[in-house]
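SAMPLE LOG
Freezer: B-3
Tube label: C17
Construct: single chain, 293 aa
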Amino acid sequence: MQPDVRVVDNQTFLLGLDNLYRERMKAHESGELLLHARQVAAELQVPAAAGPVEGYYTESYALTEYFLLMRALQQVPGVRSGEVRSRSALDRLLQVTSAPLYGTPKPNNCLLPACQDPLTLALERTPVWTIEKIVHLAHEQASHSDDFSLVALAALSSDAVALTALRESVVLYAVVAVASAAPSAPVYEWKVDEEITRRATQFVETFNTIFNEDIPAPGPQNAATYYNSADFWKVIGRCVRIGFDPTVNPPRNYHWGIVHNPQGNLEVQDFWDDEVWTTDRFKRKFFPDYVSE
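STRUCTURE (predicted):
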């Protein structure tokens, strides 16, 4: 009987980690973080932002409300922080948006910071935006830093699919034997790069501390968990705007979208458009069977 070997390589691990993070984060964003965002926005009399709702934030009314409130709060001048009476609410939002889970906070004189990750830095380093070029530069940026953000982990893998899928998640910051013998137990092989494992451990420990969660430690002992959490079909159709060109009128937006090729393998396509394409719009246009996750 041949053993049922299931390999946890870089891409499988990263998509597994992404799914474990994503499902937990949605619960926090549609719960306690939404309450804090409502409170701060109300005290500052800041209405929800208008515009396209990106990433998974179209999946529920609560997530959409959180996305639009946070987008609005991200535009509030930092000098207005003194007007917020609910300091614990603002402090919690600052703790989340400044967390190393998302990269390095970039000073912007606003109430809530935005974080730079290797993908952002790669885009800033080159005027030539192609998938190959950006993936290469993002890998360089991640390799020469100690960044353990979700996007940095994907950049270290030099995998455009993982990079697109994980960036979209943070857009706002099995053999049966003959003769009825019992099937053999799966054997899971951990083939994740050592540096990705090390930094992912930092990511998981930080996330678990901030949100009191229980994502298991990356490593061979938890290979089965990450393998079974990596749903490759779920990432088909994810689309993220990663840059824009303001030198033309109207400004053009640069996107990456995950598709599958004729051989059934995942790959990334890039495109420009005057409008912002969200995951929901991309799926409805090209993958109507995958609109709902």
